[in-house]
Write a structure and sequence with these properties.
Layout (H helix, E strand, L loop, with lengths): L10 H8 L4 H8 L4 H9 L3 E5 L7 H7 L5 E7 L7 H9 L3 E2 L4 E5 L3 H10 L1 E2 L4 E5 L6 E3 H10 L4 E5 L1 E3 L15 E8 H10 L5 E8 L3 H8 L10 E7 L3 H8 L7 E6 L4 H4 L2 H11 L5 E9 L6 H10 L5 H6 L3 E7 L4 E7 L11 E5 L5 E4 L7 H6 L1
Parallel strand pairs: 1-2, 2-4, 3-5, 4-6, 6-8, 7-9, 8-10, 10-11, 11-12, 12-13, 13-14
Antiparallel strand pairs: 14-16, 15-16, 15-17, 17-18
Helix pairs in contact: 6-7
């Protein structure tokens, strides 16, 4: 057996090995072995830099070795209240340019940290910018978010703050390259502004869209002629009625993917396959993938719940769903939680629990007891 030392391996192979190592291993543990490995680790240009509580003790050793032009990913976590790591990072690297940076994640405890970073750190075009906070009730002005999108030419933004949008005060530009956006809750009017002012936006994921005045919202939409080029819309905890959803979806006729997780109070409103059929045929003629899940909880379990499953799923057993679209639905009753659910099958919109339940599927109308994961069909389990 031939034994080869690290310094005898080709540089390309060593760099491939470095892809699976953290920055401390590459620059310190390997880089300080010998001069040759020091030079090879210095030339490695796919560094992934993470600054959090676990890396704080060796940060000062690392920063002397880091060449900003070799960093492709940066994560800064303010995961405790003692240190402002974003400002500390700026102190050490504020005059540098991270030309190859593709991914940036900032865990900010307040919006001033984001502003400080934007003011002092220079990056190239970012494929991904993640802005989040572990501190509850933190709001970030939408103008700051727009500045980050513009400054870093961001293509994908995940914004896990409660935004103080101030849409009217925002100075919108039309050269945004943003293609994918993930946010928490927003007002309906803010949703409209977002899809209007990001012409390249293709994917939008949000927790919910809030409507305070249905009549006023519908009136405002009646004057809009703009149609977004959005391809994928996901609302994870949707509280919108079918009437409002129809207005919302009229602005996105090019959707290919549509996914909803509905709040419990919306169960009766959205469990109508005929209304969904009409909406899809008139507003979403290009739709290829449709998923949703809705549920209702009961305080007491009784047998009448079982007989209602058939009536709930009947409107999703027509030719439109089964033959034209080939979309399958399941309605089930979970014994432990006394809960009825209606969802597309398979689905990834909820945890794939294996609770014992009583179900009926739109494809065969047969009632069955099962413990199958809901991200699989009965055919999948049969094949296994």
């Amino acid at each position: 057996m031939v034994h080869a030392s690290l310094d005898s391996l080709p540089v390309e192979l060593l760099h491939r090995i470095f892809d699976f190592c953290d920055i401390q291993t590459v620059l310190i543990s390997i880089g300080y072995v010998c001069r040759q490995l020091y030079a090879i680790s210095n030339s490695y240009n796919r560094l992934k830099f993470k600054y959090d509580s676990s890396s704080e003790h060796y940060f000062k050793r690392i920063y002397r070795r880091v060449r900003p032009e070799n960093v492709i990913s940066l994560i800064i976590n303010n995961d405790d209240t003692k240190n402002d790591r974003i400002r500390q990072f700026v102190t050490f690297f504020g005059t540098c340019r991270f030309a190859l940076m593709a991914s940036l994640t900032l865990n900010c405890s307040d919006h001033t940290q984001l502003e400080h970073f934007l003011k002092h750190v220079e990056c190239g075009s970012l494929n991904l910018l993640v802005i989040k906070s572990d501190t509850p009730n933190i709001k970030t002005n939408w103008t700051i978010a727009l500045r980050a999108i513009t400054q870093f030419q961001v293509r994908k933004l995940e914004f896990y703050h409660d935004l103080d949008y101030q849409i009217g005060a925002a100075q919108w530009l039309f050269q945004y390259k943003l293609e994918h956006l993930t946010i928490l809750k927003c007002l309906f009017q803010e949703y409209v502004a977002i899809i209007q002012h990001f012409p390249n936006l293709r994917t939008l994921v949000m927790r919910d869209c809030i409507v305070h005045n249905n009549e006023g919202t519908m009136g405002a939409l009646s004057h809009l002629t703009y149609a977004s080029a959005l391809k994928s819309l996901i609302i994870e905890q949707c509280s919108l009625s079918m009437i409002v959803l129809e207005s919302l979806l009229s602005l996105t006729p090019t959707l290919l993917t549509l996914k909803f997780g509905f709040e419990e109070q919306m169960f009766d409103s959205i469990c109508d396959g005929y209304s969904w059929k009409r909406l899809i045929e008139t507003k979403l003629t290009s739709l290829e993938q449709f998923e949703f899940i809705a549920f209702r909880s009961f305080s007491d379990a009784n047998n009448t719940h079982f007989t209602s499953l058939k009536s709930i799923i009947t409107s999703f057993q027509t030719g439109f769903w089964l033959k034209e679209k080939h979309w399958t639905f399941t309605c089930d009753y979970i014994f432990r939680s006394n809960q009825i659910r209606l969802y597309t099958t398979p689905t990834k919109l909820t945890n794939s629990n294996q609770a014992i339940r009583y179900e009926i599927m739109s494809t065969d109308g047969i009632h069955r007891f099962t413990q199958r994961p809901i991200n699989k069909t009965s055919d999948d389990c049969t094949e296994e």
